[in-house]
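tokens incoming
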């Protein structure tokens, strides 16, 4: 595997999402997606110089943009999303072109266990995503780049609020100021 492929794999959402289907110890009653084929692709739109109000970020605050991107990428809408990549598409205004292109190139298979996704859809599930900037030391900020570790928690709950799945992990995020706009440039889930 080339270094580029390893890096691409490391920055994908696949690790966190795939772990949701495989993290229940002692259970092997689900698909591992061995027989699926890539059937769709993402369309990349270049970032605008403003962020959509629905993303609820402060454009002047790089931490706000970082947290908004992480929360958006993991906030799945089971009623309308075909798969988790739809949430990534909603986050595109907060991603630089290179990261958006890398995430768009990922085929559907690594993102999700489709049986689990379908179970959540049938349950009328919703996601609650909490993302906070870690207080850990990080490389010095520059006027055009910051690196943060983001503590992330995802809870998938059914219509009644019963937790169907919960997991916590960190995301290493690098945000860069490009053309006067803060955009997420690197995204790597850790410990999933």
């Amino acid at each position: 595997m080339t270094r580029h492929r390893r890096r691409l794999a490391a920055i994908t959402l696949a690790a966190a999402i795939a772990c949701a289907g495989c993290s229940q110890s002692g259970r092997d009653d689900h698909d591992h997606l061995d027989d699926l084929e890539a059937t769709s692709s993402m369309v990349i739109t270049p970032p605008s110089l403003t962020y959509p109000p629905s993303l609820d970020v402060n454009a002047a605050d790089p931490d706000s943009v970082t947290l908004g991107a992480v929360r958006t990428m993991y906030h799945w809408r089971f009623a309308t999303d075909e798969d988790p990549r739809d949430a990534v598409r909603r986050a595109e205004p907060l991603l630089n072109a290179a990261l958006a292109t890398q995430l768009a190139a990922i085929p559907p298979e690594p993102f999700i266990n489709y049986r689990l996704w379908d179970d959540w859809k049938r349950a009328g599930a919703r996601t609650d995503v909490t993302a906070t900037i870690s207080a850990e030391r990080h490389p010095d900020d520059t006027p055009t780049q910051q690196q943060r570790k983001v503590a992330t928690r995802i809870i998938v709950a059914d219509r009644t609020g019963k937790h169907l799945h919960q997991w916590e992990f960190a995301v290493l995020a690098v945000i860069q100021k490009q053309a006067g706009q803060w955009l997420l440039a690197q995204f790597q889930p850790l410990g999933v």
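note: Confidence is low (pLDDT under 50) at residues 1-41, 43-48.
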